[in-house]
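tool=predict chain=A
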Amino acid sequence: MQINVHWSPEVAREFSELQICIGEIDNLKNEKANERIQRLSSTVCKEVRAKYDIETLKDDTTVRAYRDFYWKLGVDPTKTRPSGEALLRRVLHGDELPRISTVVDAYNLASMKTIIPISGFAADRLDPPFHIRFAGAEDVFAGIGMIKPMRLKDNTLVLADAKRILCVYPYRDSDHSKITLETGNALLIAYGSPGITENQLTKAVEMTLSYVRQTSRGEIKMIKMFSTTGARVLEDSTFSS
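tool=predict ok
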């Protein structure tokens, strides 16, 4: 897939540090569940429970960066939490992660471990190029699990393609482009914020692709970084085979 991301001038002016990283993986075998995702989930949950404490999580630098970003977007992060933090808090409270499918569960594990918000999209449901912009007065959004579409506020930051909004940046994805058991090719997107480095986003996508390939096979095609100043493909021999 030919992938380009266009940043609106308003977003580029307000958030000059903003960047996202996109990974492309094809020929997936997405399943409801399998032993590989169960083992991976058990391992990753044990790792994060050993590393983080629920009482001090709010002081983590990554958590702090996204929370500060949310406040700038007019979103209360104590009520609508960044997705990576929300997943991590769930596990630290002793609860299980949602079980959706091997691909979705794999990228949720990577998001939880890195605390980086990550989306997964069915590639054949997308209409690039992509745009990162503020919502307009006529924009509506139908997110996963929503009973009906909602009209977005003007200051809402979104990721859109040529036809519709794909994500309320960076915490809720569109129902239209969600990954299902029929999805063969996917795009996985890690969303940055001011204070989050390119290396963090790259590592998050690399981990996501690795987890997805472990649990759902697939052929990794590309990792590409996009910022308000340009784009570049990231080369990594780890994914050449």
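The helical segments are 9-14, 35-51, 61-72, 83-92, 102-114, 198-216. The radius of gyration is 17 Å.
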